[in-house]
């Protein structure tokens, strides 16, 4: 058999629960999805515990599982993936944090956790005074991220990610960074020193004087959280013998791709928002499928509508994504193994991720049809793929693509 | 409850994918299988990831899993099972290889990887000059196998199976055996020495002079491959408190049975080929079920038709095996726990094993019927047993047989 290429489409937060205002249907059941249903009729469906039953995945841990990694092995915190998302790809052992630019008073009480939703170019100008710092011999790298966010990366010997957040997640006094294990004492000291220095440098910074003159809160401190260590990870391409690429609008998914050694392909109009250009994404995927062995496409819009708790908006987004899948279906040719799934459910009821299993359809030549006629949570639960784990999805697709190794003889 | 006996019927390579020339059906869907369907109606069905989802099993690793062992613990390579297949059952720590009798020129370039498909009695006569060798204090045992094959067993201290193949698998210069881990250096040296000695002894052997006079290529070297170590395995009977037997035509399955301490019952007419006498196999199984607690029957013919890529032949073989199951059903009496399954799929499309799950039916008194009416890949995927792992099959059968231990009180 000729080796086939693989496409995984992740509709972020797609899965849901019964929604009263949709007459007890899920948004995916309520939406008109002729293209998704075509995949269900021509493929086989199932449901996936992306991590394990009842476990609520983040978009980071879930994508790691979908890419075939064990998140319990490679994930210690969100920091490294956020850092890689803005292009700061660390080395094994580097410790990274997400940070907020925030406003504090002289007593270190937070008065605005987002410093008036400051953004570039102010944030870029502010971090420039924090360049080329070393603390206790450790290299300290800061980079601005989207809006009021930044990332902090520590590089040196004897670092640990087992430290608590400085960000109090509320308008109260900032927390001291505490070691959660004895070996993290040095790291905690470095973080506390960094936070103090960020205040000293930023509080008197011309950008903040300008902001105060305009009645805006000064971004006079950086508050780290979500410490994680860059994992010792076998790159995706090496591990799977495929040349892979990822198309995603949101920074976090790009970061995950980069940490896994996958190429991130930027698509004009792919914003990671509700306004994302799904046709541009479809066309980028179709082009990549001719040049790469593996493509993962993430579309965030479903998750955004879910976090907003807006059922009818979620239905509309799903219908737009169905159109995108029609475009992909018509353009892709017959020799692709396609999987469509969610990374986690984000029920309208919760406005947050849940541990419910997500729907999955796998479609390619030679699939034994399972009689499924619709792609939704209930239909997929009756499908021929049964109930599987997130980390099992990629091996199944690799086998369908004629790319699996035999175990034994 | 009276303890019941257990029968597992493994139809080798039975599972398949949708085949275009069968109108998108699998061979098992296309075949007329009234007896297999009887088991489905009267039992419960499911699908099995014999190793784990998407992993392509060999017949060796899959049978180990079906016999309840973890192949990742006990399997290092095919050598030991091939050796045991021809009656050379090693002890824990012995290292065994499969070998080909091959033809090489004076530069050690392979000119015929099968030495003109040499077979017994020539092979038996040739190995006799390699008897009673010792290299570096290690006992070296060689035995002829089917056709152009032989097995090599090393017994002594400090051996390792982490060595590369000498057989280049192509008509090119033979490979040097290399240690894949530092502790395998001695083993690699012994293998290289053995290969040189095999050339020195065989090249001038009267059998080869005779072959050359008849225009046949001389079998002037033995090329080892597939090193594996005899595992430290708890014998099946001891582990499960049952007296078991295996009926199989092919040598490899007999070898697995012997390594697991199971009795291999030879059946006249059970060839391991397409011409195998399925009635003789059925009758042997029926006899054994009166005398043993556990019987595993392997029929290879389905896999052979699959490797040939011949869909209509596979359909016909399945219909013959259905007849065999009719004979077993009529003869076996009511008190047997029967499982029918494949060890792996061998899709016609691939002519090789795939990682697709295999169909399973379990039938005995007291089964909660799941409404299944057919035994095929799609129907079983909807069955009441769900999607399980290969190593879970035996514990389920042992429990149905009233032979399981309680965990807890």
Major sheet summary line of chain A = 8 strands, mixed
| Pattern of helices and strands of chain A | EHHEHHHEEHEEEHHEHEHEHEHHEEHEHE
Say which CATH homologous superfamily of the largest domain in chain A is assigned: Alkaline Phosphatase, subunit A
Q: Largest chain-chain contact?
A: A-B, 30 and 37 residues
Give the N-terminus to C-terminus distance of chain A in angstroms.
18 Å
The overall average pLDDT of chain A, rounded, is 96
Structural class of chain A: alpha/beta
The percent range for strand residues of chain A is 15-25%
**How many separate helices of chain A?**
15
Describe this structure in words.
2 copies of one chain form a homodimer. The first copy, chain A, is of the alpha/beta class. Chain A has 2 domains: 5-75 and 232-400, Alkaline Phosphatase, subunit A (3-Layer(aba) Sandwich); 88-229, no CATH class. Chain A contains 15 helices and 15 strands. Chain A has an 8-stranded mixed β-sheet, sandwiched between helices. The radius of gyration of chain A is 22 Å and the shape is globular. The A-B interface holds A 1, 44, 366-371, 382-389, 392, 394-399, 402, 404-409 and B 16-19, 24, 26, 47, 51-62, 71, 75, 78, 226, 347, 349-350, 352-356, 377-378, 381-382, 386-387. Strand 15 of chain A pairs parallel with strand 3 (56-57) of chain B.
């Amino acid at each position: 058999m000729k080796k086939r290429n693989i496409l995984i489409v992740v509709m972020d937060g797609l899965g849901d629960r019964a929604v009263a205002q949709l007459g007890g249907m899920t948004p995916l059941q309520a939406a008109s999805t002729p293209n998704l249903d075509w995949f269900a009729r021509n493929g086989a469906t199932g449901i996936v515990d992306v991590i394990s039953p009842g476990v609520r995945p983040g978009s980071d841990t879930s994508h790691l599982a979908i890419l075939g990694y064990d998140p319990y092995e490679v994930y210690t915190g969100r920091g490294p993936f956020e850092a890689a998302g803005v292009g700061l790809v660390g080395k094994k052992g580097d410790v990274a944090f997400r940070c907020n630019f925030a406003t504090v008073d002289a007593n270190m009480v937070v008065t605005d956790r987002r410093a008036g939703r400051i953004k570039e170019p102010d944030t870029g100008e502010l971090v420039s005074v924090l360049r080329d710092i070393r603390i206790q011999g450790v290299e300290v790298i800061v980079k601005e991220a989207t809006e009021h966010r930044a990332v902090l990366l520590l590089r040196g010997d004897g670092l640990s990610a087992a430290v608590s957040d400085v960000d109090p997640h509320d308008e109260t006094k900032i927390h001291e960074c505490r070691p959660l294990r004895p070996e993290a004492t040095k790291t905690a000291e470095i973080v506390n020193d960094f936070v103090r220095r960020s205040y000293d440098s930023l509080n008197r910074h011309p950008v903040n004087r300008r902001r105060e003159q305009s009645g805006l809160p000064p971004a006079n401190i950086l508050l780290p959280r979500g410490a994680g260590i860059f994992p010792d990870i076998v790159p995706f391409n090496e591990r799977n013998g495929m040349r892979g690429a990822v198309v995603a609008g949101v920074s976090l998914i790009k970061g995950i791709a980069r940490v896994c050694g996958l190429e991130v392909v930027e698509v004009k109009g792919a914003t990671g928002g509700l306004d994302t250009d799904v046709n541009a994404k479809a066309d980028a995927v179709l082009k990549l499928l001719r040049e790469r062995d593996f493509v993962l496409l993430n579309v965030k819009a479903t998750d955004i509508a879910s976090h907003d708790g807006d059922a009818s908006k979620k239905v509309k987004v799903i219908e737009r994504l169905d159109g995108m899948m029609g475009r992909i279906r018509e353009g892709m040719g017959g020799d692709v193994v396609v999987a469509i799934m969610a990374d986690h459910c984000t029920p309208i009821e919760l406005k947050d991720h849940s541990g419910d299993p997500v729907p999955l359809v796998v479609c390619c030549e030679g699939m034994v049809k399972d009689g499924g006629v619709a792609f939704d949570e209930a239909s997929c639960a009756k499908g021929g793929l049964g109930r599987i784990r997130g980390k099992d999805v990629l091996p199944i697709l690799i086998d369908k693509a004629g790319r699996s190794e035999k175990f034994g003889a």
